[in-house]
Amino acid sequence: MNILITGILLSGTYALVALGLTLQYGVARIMNLGNGETLVAACFVAFWLYAAYAINPLLGLLLIAPAAFLINWAIYALALAPLVKRAKNRGQLEADSILATFGLLFLLQGLMILGFGGEYRSYTFLAERFDLFGNSYGLNRVVAFAAAVVICSALWFFLYRTRQGTAMRAVAVDPNSANLVAIDVPRTAAIAFALGGALTACGGALISTFYTFNASMGVIFTMKALIIVIMGGVGDLRGAVLAALILGVSETLVASLIDPGLTLAATYALFILVLLFRPQGIFGRAPS
């Protein structure tokens, strides 16, 4: 039970990061390899706000999320929209976006090393004991999970109960058909990319409350988010949440029962199994 709950608590922030990449890839058709750098940047900003101004990281989300939205909108408009316009098909866009965001990864990483250095950082926030079902957990992890659930619920409401959210889902299914029913596809894709960046930043700010981080670890979270997205089925929010839960519990199980150093290996083993036996993802449909 202890391992299961610990894994579930971890999966909440994983789900946020994966949902960010799901929106960027599923709607905007951009495979953003700089996604993890957005997460790490949010970690540093949350750390800076808390250390310099004593701003609660949860309140800091009110600053971090809008800033990440605007920055990711600018990145899309300046660096990625030209790739979208010139791409003749989805395959070319995916290849071009991978190359472009691969360069963005190193740019953002270099800026963070320049600004914050390469050492590991952490801060003490709600580092108290929280008893649940007879076991003790860090209160910061519980609060981070609860915040992630609230944000994911707000995303679900936006996507399934608002006009703009419906437009995003339509673009994710078929951009050409969406264009025929008066949906502004380029604008919707830009909003999806920016919103994905904001979700990832929220995940980073929450992770920073209980995780030690440095400027070079973004690629690890990018790969985890990518694994979750593919496991769940590209563009499928239900699949991303379930895959995040599976990944969080699997990592906790391996770390607790075998060796913490093997968690990443277990993650990739799980990924390979999915590619071998369920390449379309948990909720995806096999091509006919």
From TrEMBL:
InterPro entries with a match to the protein in the record: ABC_transp_permease, BCAA_transport_permease
Swiss-Prot/TrEMBL keywords: Amino-acid transport, Cell membrane, Membrane, Transmembrane, Transmembrane helix, Transport
Bilayer-spanning residue ranges: 6-27, 39-55, 61-84, 96-118, 138-159, 189-213, 225-247, 253-277
A GO cellular-component term linked to this record: plasma membrane
Protein name: Branched-chain amino acid ABC transporter permease
Entry annotated with the keyword Iron: no
Pfam families membership: BPD_transp_2
Gene Ontology terms: biological process: amino acid transport
Subcellular location as annotated: Cell membrane
Recorded topology in the membrane: Multi-pass membrane protein
GO molecular-function term, one example from the UniProt record: transmembrane transporter activity
Family named by the database record: Belongs to the binding-protein-dependent transport system permease family. LivHM subfamily.
Record flagged with keyword Transport: yes
